[in-house]
């Protein structure tokens, strides 16, 4: 009967909820040892300028779980934020990213930047003792800022940015004073207006891939992207489009004046060793001719 089916649905829902909760508890427990066990690694995705030259790389975390296999960040960063483990993980990410920055600059040139995703939890008041360490990591001894930039870019997502505590704005200002640039990630998915963003002194706006994936000459996404780009430019903010998968999307975004492009069309995120190996093999003159 309908009644019975209804009750079963509730029961299934209950079981699913319980299962999800158990899995979460399990993952949070496993996260505790993940750094010590060297289960994390970073992959790097190139960000090119409007003539296709690599200017930056975004560092993205991966978790190689001993039994579950490779876990993407969307499946554990949220838990790590809730449990506070994101603070340790975030510091590990910055240390790794800085080592990678040195290597990437030595092969691609000093202009190369590496961007890291930073959770607002890492900047929150409850973590004030650790915020000092975060500063030292971001702005610290490795940074030789000859160009006024130390090579690191901090990416903060729009949604979390909107809910951020008042202190966040001061942190971002301080980062910029120390040569760390700031990017607003996933722009367009939240509710912030560009006039609001103006108060925040950011360097880059990253247009969310949900807009880019719908791009073609006819779609309203085109007008939206074009509008975001020209408004950002009028505020002195540079624009990165993420999730560029086709030549058509790249061409349209360039036509709209987008400054930087990132996406599978150019390259998937890769491990540092693979990026450098590919570069080396491409630059070794062939002996088979
Ligand atoms: P995000 O910062 O917006 O990063 C862009 C995501 O889009 C990455 O997913 C990237 O692999 C993916 N992507 C790049 N190009 C394309 C494309 O052409 N098509 C499609 N469909 N996707 C593309 P990923 O690596 O799974 O990361 C997901 C999110 O997890 C990131 O979104 C970021 O918010 C978060 N995340 C990643 N690494 C870290 C980290 O070290 N710390 C923190 N706090 N968050 C991180
Ligand atoms: Mg990002
Ligand atoms: Mg993004
Ligand atoms: Mg995202």
TrEMBL record:
<feature type="domain" description="EAL">
    <location>
        <begin position="24"/>
        <end position="283"/>
    </location>
</feature>
<protein>
    <submittedName>
        <fullName>Diguanylate cyclase/phosphodiesterase</fullName>
    </submittedName>
</protein>
């Amino acid at each position: 009967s309908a009644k019975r089916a209804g009750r079963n649905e509730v029961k299934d829902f209950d079981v699913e909820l319980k299962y999800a909760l158990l899995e979460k508890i399990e993952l949070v427990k496993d996260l505790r040892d993940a750094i010590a066990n060297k289960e994390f690694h970073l992959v790097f995705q190139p960000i090119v300028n409007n003539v296709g030259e690599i200017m930056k790389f975004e560092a993205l975390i991966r978790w190689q779980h001993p039994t579950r296999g490779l876990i993407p960040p969307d499946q554990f960063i949220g838990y790590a934020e809730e449990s506070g483990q994101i603070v340790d993980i975030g510091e590990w990410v910055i240390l790794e990213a800085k080592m990678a920055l040195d290597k990437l600059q030595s092969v691609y040139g000093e202009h190369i930047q590496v961007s890291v995703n930073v959770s607002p939890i890492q900047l929150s008041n409850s973590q004030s003792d650790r915020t000092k360490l975060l500063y030292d990591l971001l702005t610290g001894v490795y940074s030789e800022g000859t160009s006024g930039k130390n090579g690191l870019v901090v990416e903060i997502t729009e949604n979390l940015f909107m809910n951020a505590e008042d202190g966040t704005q001061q942190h971002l200002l301080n980062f910029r004073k120390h040569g760390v640039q700031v990017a607003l990630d996933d722009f367009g998915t939240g509710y912030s207006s560009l006039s609001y963003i103006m108060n925040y002194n950011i360097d880059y706006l990253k247009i969310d891939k949900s807009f880019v994936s719908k791009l073609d000459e006819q779609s309203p996404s085109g007008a939206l992207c074009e509008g975001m780009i020209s408004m950002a430019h009028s505020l002195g903010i540079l624009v990165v489009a993420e999730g560029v998968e086709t030549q058509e999307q790249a061409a349209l975004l360039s036509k709209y004046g987008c400054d930087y492009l990132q996406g599978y069309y150019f390259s998937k995120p890769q491990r540092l060793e693979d990026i450098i190996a590919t570069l080396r093999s491409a630059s070794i003159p062939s002996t088979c001719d």
